[in-house]
Amino acid sequence: MTVRGHDRRQDIDTDVLVIGCGIAGATAALEAAGNGLDVVVITKNANPEESNTYYAQGGIVSLGEDDQPELLAGDIITAGDGINNPEAVELLAEESKPLVESVLVRELKIPFSRSAPDCLDYAQEGGHSRRRVLHVKDTTGRTIQERLIGALKNRSRLKLLTGHSAVDILTVPHHSKNAIAYYRPPQCIGAYVLDNEAQRVRTIYARATVLATGGCGALFLNTSNPREAIGAGYAMAHRAAARIVNMEYIQFHPTSLYDRDAGGFLISEAVRGEGARLKTREGRTFMAKYSPRKDLAPRDEVSRAIYEEMIEGDSDYVLLDLASYAQVNIKKRFPNIYRTCLQAGIDITREPIPVVPAAHYCCGGVWTDLWGRTSLDGLYAVGETACTGVHGANRLASTSLLEGLVWGTRAARAIAQNLPTVRLFKPSEIHPWYYPRNEEEIDPALINQDWLSIRSTLWNYAGIIRTRKRLERAKADLEYLNHRIEKFYREVHMDENVVALRQGIQVALLITQAALSNPVSRGAHFIKP
Q1: What structural domains does the chain harbor?
Q2: Mean per-residue pLDDT for 383-412?
Q3: 299 annotated active-site
Q4: 132: which residues sit within 8 A by CB, 6+ positions away?
Q5: Model confidence, pTM
């Protein structure tokens, strides 16, 4: 191996490095900069608005007019099948309304929908016992993300780098050339980051690093997530020996639009909250057979019910009928869903919507405490990347944006209070990035086929309904593929697609191994004997 093209003038030294800029990462960055810290935010996409946050339609949980934190906490724990971290749930419920009002309403001025000029409109969603979901019609995430990115661009002491992919968490002693460093506790000191355009890795040193890379839904064949959601944060944290938990709990959203050109477009749970009913292709309602809460049952129950009906009826989809049961003005309440479905030839004011379940949210992730601290000193995780224990075995609808807001804020406050003043390393002691001596050119056909193998394997063997034999087959196939990809990664020209492929295969294995290790069906992990 040889060093080629490394220029230390391209290295960055900052107080805080935030990897990802959805609601969790952006909130953490803004709060840290507001506390007087120098912050660098990186995102692998050239468009910083591209994130899971952007595609969140339904809304964000607050407390409704007849609501209490205890009621919200009870609904979260019921949806999570009772294995939630009670302290984290209590914290989320208590801080929901104050933070939504202070950050989103007053600071970012999010124009939440109103039922009257002086009254916010609270929506009902599956699993909730109260109307408590604030929304901007059906484009809540898009509105929040656009305001957050605008704030990032205008905040002093904050630098936003687009088109930069995190490759590896930088740790001492692992990346240190100083043998004495091995006598000190492990510590995160930043990250190796690929400049996607220049195709060169630069080193970013940080006294605190925040993982906010989102989830891993795009590892599955059918997903509501953007294609960038391949779980990079999980893979990097795992390689850095940070604790990873609950990766078997992959939540599938029951209703994504069944249309080849729609790209996994989500039909918000709020549609069922406003009266829509699920039906077979023959027009028979079926949710009463699977849950006493019928169409407002938690997502895992609805997803399995749809899956069973599809198998029983030998069908590729079921129907979601809003037109027959709507309790609202459909075009006004769901304008984006209406427009998107109309482009696919479906008028949701007159006919039902064909839908299928899709991988949606990872309830596990990088273990953190109540302040976003991971098991590795100097490394924090927030949002879907983290496992705070809030969601347990299954996430309650519209709590993800709130979790990102709460823990993004808390992690930044913890960093501001505990940022180390003395470094235990010198940049000259850290290994620069290594490139292969003879870099091969990348064959895109190999990458495309490897992704198809990963996504098909997870969907068929580690998806909505699992068996031990399916999971064992998945593990064997993925381990073989991992070996090939690792060799490929170390030989080819450095490229964002190769980096993503390596991250993705490792997360696919984390999911499969976690599912194999847990024989108990609970929440989003359902395994047949």
Answers
A1: 8-248+363-427 (3.50.50.60), 250-360 (3.90.700.10), 444-528 (1.20.58.100)
A2: 97
A3: yes
A4: 61, 62, 63, 64, 67, 72, 122
A5: 0.92
